[in-house]
Amino acid sequence: MKLGLGLGAITISVCMAAAQVDCPNYTIYAQTPKGNPSSGPLGLPYMRPEPACRTFNSTSVEKVISDMKARLKDPDIARLFENTFPNTLDTTVKYFNKEENLAFIITGDITAQWLRDTGNQFAHYRSLLSMDQELATLVKAVINNEARYVSEYPYCGAFQPPPESNLPPSHNDWADGVVVNPPVNNQTVFECKYEVDSLCGFIKLSTSYYQATKDASMMNDNWFFAIEQVFRVMNEQSQPSYDSNFNFVSYYNWTGLPGSLPGMVVNGGNGEPKGFTGMVGTSHRPSDDLSVYAFLTPANAMLSVELNNLATILDDAKLAPDVSARAKQWSQRIKQGIHEYGVFNDVFAYETNGLGSRYMMDDANVPSLLSLPYLGFLDRNDAAYIKTKKMLMSRQNPYYAKGLNFSGIGGPHIDAWHPWPMSQITNIFGSDDDDEILESLYTVANNTAGLGLIHESVNIYNGSDYTRPWFAWANSYFGEMILDLAQRKPHLILHDNEPYVPGQ
Ligand SMILES: *[C@@H]1O[C@H](CO)[C@@H](O)[C@H](O)[C@H]1NC(C)=O
Ligand SMILES: *[C@@H]1O[C@H](CO)[C@@H](O)[C@H](O)[C@H]1NC(C)=O
Ligand SMILES: *[C@@H]1O[C@H](CO)[C@@H](O)[C@H](O)[C@H]1NC(C)=O
Ligand SMILES: *[C@@H]1O[C@H](CO)[C@@H](O)[C@H](O)[C@H]1NC(C)=O
Ligand SMILES: *[C@@H]1O[C@H](CO)[C@@H](O)[C@H](O)[C@H]1NC(C)=O
Ligand SMILES: *[C@@H]1O[C@H](CO)[C@@H](O)[C@H](O)[C@H]1NC(C)=O
Ligand SMILES: *[C@@H]1O[C@H](CO)[C@@H](O)[C@H](O)[C@H]1NC(C)=O
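# 2-acetamido-2-deoxy-beta-D-glucopyranose complex -> structure
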């Protein structure tokens, strides 16, 4: 079986290698301006790779770009959209084999596939899946590859290429000297930090694929097995640290040995002890940083929403009523847990331990508290959200910062004075206020270091000082936000007040 599959893979990878033989390294390419500058005051460069170097071609994506370029009133925003919207397809499809139903999608400047990132890297193409069969087939192949990863390693979030691709695994310095239980194979796993939102990313990609295509063939045995592993992890990680006899309960632990880059984690790699809340605990945050307290409110909000979506697609496809019923129960229990343990004086806490302690803050990485409306957990006019958002975009949030050049929410992943453009994009999804939306939009647009792509973080004192030249999720998220505004607030960004929806 391996030989048969391998032969197909060799043909494909040879094709791609031949086509891309002279293609520049996009991490380097993205660090200097290319092409003619846009005609607005920002004069942003054209950063798409040469057609021959693009990793996937889609006529429906090209159509959205040309439609939007004709309708966006600010040529700088149009250029940003043109660069960012296709970035996932232009640069990150490292392997795709239709017959094998496998695709490997990298995050950008790191050659590994993150479950969370892919859930977002394709989110802005959702409306195209019903009209673009090739694109839908690609997404289905991403889901199938992830079903394999999750089946084997449900506690891990970032993975190596499938063996069929014959692509070499990448070495991760940050995984050196790390002891993780259950143990992992580094030929399959790039990094095994347990982040409950990674599992949500897998479900999100699956449910949005089905909702757009109504193609239930994505839910194969592989996929159902992966979903069972998600339930297993939820069950294990919702349990308190101590049982009634004070036996310490641990299904997963992660710690660095002396001298390793990540360092040691307290309590045998388990972190801070937790109580019982009905929520599901997590070891690391969506930023890949360690959690302070296990119950991460926004990740649980996303889990509650995605479990409900999972039940909806199963019901629609008339499949696995038992799985659907469990998904609904868990979704409800988690939501109750959030309201009971995660809200204080009508303000959502970022993390709690279920024993009375809480951390009032936010981190830019989605799922974040600021993204609760984007996640579909609540309405942007929800009173507790409005109160929470006011706190998050102020000095009371330790990871909010504002300087002469840039402002927003960041996190300890880089440092407190490098907020992330992603947080301003999230703020737009969470706002109905035209002035606030434009302020956030131009805070992002003015701070691409003149490179016309969305970066990970930007120094509040110096817009030229940024991290990650090639970050596909952030680019996709910007494109998704512009499409959202084109539909929700056309007068703000389009020449006329006619909403734009791809394919309509
Ligand atoms: C691309 O360039 C970056 C930055 O120099 C480097 O770290 C990376 O290994 C290169 N990637 C490849 C595939 O050569
Ligand atoms: C995309 O199209 C260009 C021609 O416009 C071609 O050279 C390139 O190989 C195509 N890429 C893929 C992955 O098929
Ligand atoms: C996997 O782990 C082994 C043993 O620690 C190490 O020698 C090897 O370089 C690792 N491979 C990758 C791809 O990181
Ligand atoms: C770590 O997790 C494993 C299960 O994967 C468990 O058997 C072991 O007892 C845990 N170790 C600690 C120190 O909690
Ligand atoms: C963005 O830059 C323009 C100048 O090009 C300036 O007028 C505007 O106030 C800036 N907006 C923000 C939100 O920084
Ligand atoms: C930072 O902001 C100052 C004041 O608005 C401006 O003069 C300067 O050009 C900006 N620098 C960068 C690198 O964005
Ligand atoms: C701003 O950051 C850029 C890129 O890191 C650096 O070259 C430049 O010297 C910095 N400017 C100031 C005023 O620190």
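# post-check
Residues 1-19 have pLDDT under 50 and may be disordered.
The longest strand covers residues 462-467.
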